[in-house]
Amino acid sequence: MQEIESVLKENRRFEPPAEFQSKARVQSFAEYERLYRRSIEDPEAFWGEVARELPWMRPFDRVLDWSGAPVARWFEGGEINASAVCLDQHLETERRTKTAILWEGEPGDRRSYTYEEAHVEVCRLANALKARGIGRGDRVALYMPMVPELTFAVLACARIGAIHSVVFGGFSAQSLRDRIEDGSCSAVITADGGWRRGKVLPLKAVVDEALDGLGGVHTVLVVRRCENEVAWQPERDVWYHELVASQSSDCPPEPMGSEDTLFLLYTSGSTGKPKGIRHTTGGYLVGTYLTARYVFDLREEDVYWCTADVGWITGHSYIVYGPMANGATQVLYEGAPNQPHPGRFWEIVERYGVSILYTAPTAIRAFMRWGDEHVEKFDRSSLRLLGTVGEPINPEAWMWYREVVGGGRCPIVDTWWQTETGAIMITPQPGAVATKPGSCTLPFFGVDALVVDEEGNEKGPNEGGYLAVRKPWPSMLRGIWGDDERFVETYWSKWPGMYFAGDGARRDEDGYFWIMGRVDDVLNVSGHRLSTMEIESALVSHPSVVEAAVVARPDELTGEAVCAFVTIAPGVTAEEALGDRLKEHVAAEIGKLARPAQIRFTDALPKTRSGKIMRRLLRDIAADREIVGDTTTLEDFSVLARLRGNED
Ligand code: PRX
Questions:
Q1: 483 C-alpha to center of ligand 1: Å?
Q2: Which end of the chain, C or N, has fewer beta carbons within 10 A?
Q3: Distance of CA 523 from the midpoint of ligand 1 (Å)
Q4: How confident is the model at residue 647 (pLDDT cuts 50, 70, 90)?
């Protein structure tokens, strides 16, 4: 089998801004290298020291036991409670009265909580769950809008040792049902509804549908958010505010074993049944605590905002656990980025003086498309660090993020990681590592990442291959719920002792990582294996193009031909001549072999609810096949209908 060829050329390089560097946690490349080397050469000493910064209820006996590989055991013998790490430890310090959450609903309503107030909310809810018979080891599904109660629910489960399984509030009844069933959940926490683009998402009604005829769930706890009408099953359904009101705010945290399961989070992958990724307590907390602290260079006075939903791993690790373990002040926003106007995010940045912003390339490209004026209207001088996550960011979007959003002042941390890795794995230390647009740069402490060939041999500089990780890390997944075989087969069977991430990547001459997307998204033109992401980057570098998705279409001559779905900038006309110009542009940027055989203009691309382009569906459309397989994670079904027949 052939390797993946990398064709992306990008030579811009930005040193950490001097002002940022002078105050950063890691202030020079030499310091990063020293810490990194130590973390790799003596991981147990490194992680043991970090772990001791957390409030253990019983100290651990041993840092790592890898004898049961690929299932790692971190900090065994130790007892800790995740909600106490995020809340109780701060109550002994000046952070007691510090703001934890600055929340804004989509309609504009606002609430805020100090650490002390959040602690009371979580304890009451934890007692309410106990009153309904929920305890250690029980699985609780959370299907909620982005309201503070979602964070409280996560932490209340953790407090009593129940395992939370958050299902993003945009999933269908069927997807929710599958996840409740797979995890044998006994309770669901939801809301009457949530606001999205000015409309009420009827969450409780979806829960009712999901539970129809399904046994096992004895309690549905319902937050009153939108006051929309809901059906009611008096035995099963309880109003959150009613149940919580009568509860005591005294609820001692349950001492949890370091390797006890903290949560399940389902990830769909590109095919097959969703996998319930299982994360445990001690290692996950250590990983999210340290990455949040170093990658975002978190300081006491920062106002941090991660725009993800708590329903994704990004929200688990970098809204709930990482920032709160560090006692950060953070913004939480319920709604859409363009509601009621395309400048909503920047209005929020101005209002709260956000200093650290963490968002996704798909959002960045949407803002590019909506126009700079919506960004520039608001004061962004409080920003000092920008982050991105979720997919490869094309250099054009990276440059726009840097120049327009950050005014050229802020370092960008492009963070590569996965639901499975639990915490950020590859990313620049913002005060120490120079950045290059489109590269997630270098591994975080303790992460022994590399690029290998089919046989597991390390590739040379600028050769494309598979991204792999050699050593265990504390926040790694411990399994797939109920399917240990699939866990081993999916992640650990390609090469002995190495984690297979499923992504293509290359390292450049400086050792920087350039992620080329999922290996399933590679196409093969005349025997050259090309990453779709690199061709997309070339397309987006043309001023008329805002977003592009490239897939393979069967071709008699070349095996596969490049078919590109392209969204163009406002005011540009979709015409054959433009299609031809774009084909030539790609040929000039990359080479003739990457020249698209077909360009299709579209006003939107099919995406998952977390913003990933569903290339699987586009492959079917490009090949004129019936769409097969699961479409339940698609965000906007009308996109598919519009895509068919839009040929140049
Ligand atoms: O393909 C990589 C891409 O997203 C995948 C993981 O998706 P998920 O489990 O949903 O987690 C997303 C949030 C961590 C990866 O295998 N990905 C994520 N971050 C990046 C990325 N690709 C390139 N650059 C990134 N920074």
A1: 23
A2: N
A3: 19
A4: very low
